Amino acid sequence: MSDNNEDDDLDLRSLNDEELAEQIGDDLYDGLKDEVVEGVEILLERGWTPYDILTKALVAGMKIVGDDFRDGILFVPEVLLAANAMKAGMEILRPLLVETGAPKAGKMVIGTVKGDIHDIGKNIVAMMMEGAGFEVINLGINVEAEQFLAAIDEHKPHILGMSALLTTTMPYMKTVIEELEKKGIRDDIIVLVGGAPLNEDFARAIQADAYCKDAAVAVDTAKELMQRKHNIST
Amino acid sequence: MSRTSLPELMEERGWLLADGATGTNLFMKGLESGYPPELWNDEKPDIIQWLHQGFIDAGSDIILTNSFGGSRYRLMLHKAQDRVAELNEKAARLAGALAEKADRPVVVAGSVGPTGEIFENAGGTLAYEDGVAAFAEQIAALAEGGVDVVWIETMSSTEEAQAAVQAARQVAPDLPVVVTMSFDTAGRTMMGVRPADLAGFAAEQNLFAFGSNCGTGAPDLLLGVLEMTEAAPEATVVAKANAGVPEFKDGEIVYSGTVELAGVYAKMAMDAGARIIGGCCGNTFEHVAEMKRALNGHAPGPRPTRPDVEARLGPIQQATGHKCAHGHGHGEGGARRRRRRRG
């Protein structure tokens, strides 16, 4: 867009707080990592709490990225860039969030199941969940049932997320859920599953709590199920 | 029977039948979830040959080798990255031996799937040259084992497809090359490639054929085929759809698509302009035999429309293209917002 090229040296400091928070969202959308970092630093200087920066700038920005990914406007390469920019901002905020004891939306353990090396979708979900204020423990790819169980034992997450991109690996999700049942902890945790070959019926058949079509849906589903669980237990 | 080339056979016949699923059929023979099927080229060659023979008997003119995950990046996961040459060559020979025994020409296509990595030039970490080297290693072994065509499938990124094609040209310059992609995200690949983009890529790269495989079921796949044949009406387009969607029954993955629907799909694929027709996940020998019955003597009808596809094969799973009605001013495929430059 021509009007964007006139001045490449936008001075983020010249923006008021509200404009700057919005600008950080725009920069996230465009995957401009350095600009996101600068914006976060300026808001910190201006006395914003880490939690406000997270929710009002980063989370709000990633929400638009997630929505446009869901709607087929953005695709994986753009989302990866946005996620990297988000990550850079989060690296500044994470220690501060811990220090200030900011509220967390919940905790999630996530991984791609045994035999499957597909990292992309799972990482996008992890980033979006972090972007929505969840603490995410990402176990990576080729994760065996024992590794999932050990991580659940260690971190006591609210949510377990499993990903599979291959027809040959998706049944392994059922194996993991069976192991949870055997240990008697299936009902303590929300199990979300996703990946290209999956669908809702499959998720139901293996007794997951929900199938999440994409990262935006994963975030919404996680929030909704956390809320429901909260209502039941209180 | 002596082997024939894919271009010759296509010239002679006008359309060809490919095969069906590999992974889902191997499940029936005890393949465990998470285990790499490529290792069976060494451990259970009889089962791999059972698979190929089943498709030959069902009428397939083209069979794909059991080498989809045979690149070093995929085999690394199972600490078999040092066995790329062996496993791919075996895959080619297992299929080739049966093609030679068949009483009609059967083309052996060397299957090459994605590395699972994202290329640097597509926002990821795998250097393009490393990708080319990995594909070259795999394709050289397939060629050594005697494949008739390099069959690059289930791709989602143009950068990765480009690396695989470049590798094929380097190590097997005499073999025809076919590329199929999975259009499973809003009518594009997950990396954002449109079916028409693949048609353009195929013309640039002088591919023998291109098309679509796997993804989210036959109705969606056919929309992609329609887009490709519209963009390149003279091209040889491949359709290899899944048999419905996966369901989990009694501990096994079963695809929902019936054998009868496979015949309907095959005829519609031909009407849509596809000239190499087969199946991907969930397609058994019976599905492929039904495609053969349906296609034999089928006089291609008018190009199906989206409502025709939905009426006969079921609903489209993925919306194609974002029809934006809420006026936030983004162009087709463009970013919705841009960094604003202010004073």
Kindly summarize this structure in a few lines:
Chain A has 234 residues and is of the alpha/beta class.
Q: Can you walk through the features of this model?
A:
- The complex is a heterodimer of chains A (234) and B (343).
- The longest helix of chain A is centred in the middle third of the chain and has 25 residues, at 76-100.
- Chain A has helices at 17-29, 33-45, 50-70, 76-100, 120-131, 145-155, 172-182, 200-205, 215-233; strands spanning 106-112, 134-138, 159-163, 190-194, 210-211.
- In chain A, strands 2-1-3-4-5 form a five-stranded parallel sheet, sandwiched between helices.
- Chain A has 234 residues and is of the alpha/beta class.
- In chain A, α1 packs antiparallel against α2, α3 (50-70) packs antiparallel against α4 (76-100) and α4 (76-100) crosses α5 (120-131).
- In chain A, β1 (106-112), α5 and β2 form a beta-alpha-beta unit.
- Chain A starts with 16 loop residues before the first helix and ends with a helix.
- Helix content of chain A is 56%, strand content 10%.
- By secondary structure, chain B is of the alpha/beta class.
- Chain B has a single domain (6-313), classed as Homocysteine-binding-like domain (TIM Barrel), CATH 3.20.20.330.
- Helix content of chain B is 41%, strand content 14%.
- In chain B, α10 (218-231) links the parallel β6 and β7.
- In chain B, α4 (45-58) runs parallel beside α12 (285-295), α7 (128-144) crosses α8 and α9 packs across α10.
- The longest helix of chain B has 18 residues, at 84-101.
- Chain B is globular.
- Chain B starts with 5 loop residues before the first helix and ends in a 30-residue tail after the last helix.
- Mean pLDDT of chain B is 91; it is low at 320-343.
- At the A-B interface, α1, α4, α7 and α8 of A face α2 and β8 of B.
